[in-house]
Amino acid sequence: MQKMLAATVDGLGFSTRVQNVLDGMRVVTIGDLVALSDRELLRSPNLGRKSLSEIHQVLGARGLCLGMRREAAEPGTGEAVIPGEELDRLIARSVARRIRFLERASRDGCSSADVHLGRIYLEGVGVRTSFRKARVYFARAARRGNRLGYWNLAVLYQTGYGVRRSPAKAARWLGAYRRRTGEVK
C-alpha cells in the first residue's frame, strides 16, 4: 500500500484537464491525492464535478478513495483505514435532524432558517448539493427581508451556481443587500 501511495499521479491515466489541475495544485503522489477531500478539489477553479467523478473512478479501481490519511495503510495488513467514515455517518444523522428542524422553522416564517437551509444545500453538508434548493431558500429569506438572503442570491448570480450567470441580477441583489444594511455605494 505504501508503495502505491508513493507512486506519482502521472501514470494513473487521468485526462489532460485533471492532470493539469493536479499539477497546478502540486499534487505529485497518489498519497497527496488521496489526502485531499472532494471539497478541496472542487475549490480548484478548473475542476468540476465531471473531473471529480473521473478521479473517484480511477482511485476506486485501485481500492482507494479521497479523504484518506497518508498513514492510512496499517503495516502488514495492506488495508486502508478511512478515518472519517464513522464521523461522516454521525454528521449526516445530525444534519438530517437539523434540516427537519430548520424546515419547520422556515414554514413558521423564520428567515434565518431559510439562510441556513440555503447554505446546507449550496455546500452539500450532509445532503446532496442542490443549487436549485439553495436558490429557493435564499429567495425566500430575501422576500422575508433577511439581508443574507440578498447577499447569497448576489453570489449565486455572480458565480452562476444553479442559475444562469447574470452580473445584472447579481448587482440588483447586491444593491438590495446594501440598502438593507444601510451601506451606501
Please outline the major beta sheet.
none
In angstroms, what is the radius of gyration? Answer: 20 Å
Which runs of at least 5 residues are low in confidence (pLDDT < 50)?
A: 72-81
Based on CA inertia axes, which overall geometry fits?
Answer: elongated
The CATH homologous superfamily of the largest domain is termed: Tetratricopeptide repeat domain
Strand content: under 5%
Terminal Cα span: 57 Å
Q: In the CATH classification, which architecture of the largest domain applies?
A: Alpha Horseshoe
Strand tally is 0
Structural class designation:
mainly alpha
What is the subunit organization of this protein?
single chain
Total discrete domains = 2
Named CATH topology of the largest domain: Serine Threonine Protein Phosphatase 5, Tetratricopeptide repeat
Task: Specify the CATH class of the largest domain.
Answer: Mainly Alpha
Helix content: 55-70%
